[in-house]
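stuck on this fold:
=====
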Amino acid sequence: MNTEAYNPGTDGAKMTFADAMSYGDYLKLDTLLAQQHPQSTAHDEMLFIIQHQSSELWMKLAIHELAAARKALRTGDTAQMFKMLARVSRIFEQLNNAWDVLRTMTPADYTTFREALGPSSGFQSYQYRMIEYVLGNRNPNMLKPHEHLPHVHQILAEELARPSFYDEVVRVLFRTIDGHEDHVPPPQIDTPHSAVPEIQARWKIVYEDIDEYWSLYEMGEKLVDLEDYFRRWRFNHVTTVERVIGFKRGTGGTSGVQYLRKMLSVELFPELWNLRGEL
């Protein structure tokens, strides 16, 4: 048995980085790993911070992918759009898995630092709000928590002023089924998307003839897949909060579990879910 320590340099691996970019340089790890600043001495606060910071990084990627997917949809590059939507679904799978780590924190653990959070709360996440706005759940009341950050408020307001990703999908749906866009329902710009019978009727045509409308059928299923993971994320959020704080009010002043349960009833693409009962 060879007990000599392996030296990757002998196989050609670069071992000195005084004049070259290293892994840490590329990822700006010194900066990234210096951003965890617990406000208390509680052991579990580090878990809480990293859970939420890592979630924000995954949400940043989700927004990046959704922006590219919307661009690909507009240019007719459906293959790339499908790939990006599939990636967003997998991102929400990652976000779902993260709740399993946070649930190792008990109510007793959380109470040791909860006061240090002040009025900060996850419902104030502007990246989460952007994801909802892009997909079609557009509650203009949720702009208010971001007024203290003018650049963030502007970005969210600009998203509310343009058609959602789902609105863009609906345009393609009508153009393909009808051969024109004369009867496309107006975009639900600054209000949560509610089911429109005419949209559901077109989706029904697609699902009853998937060979003829395979691309639209695949698009619909990609959207259902994405919302499936999104709903699981919301459900896991509710379960985790109830497990850790019960029915106390949230740190941001919301009703806590009751508020999160209301969010479970929100549907992003209701026509795609409703038509299943008609097939």
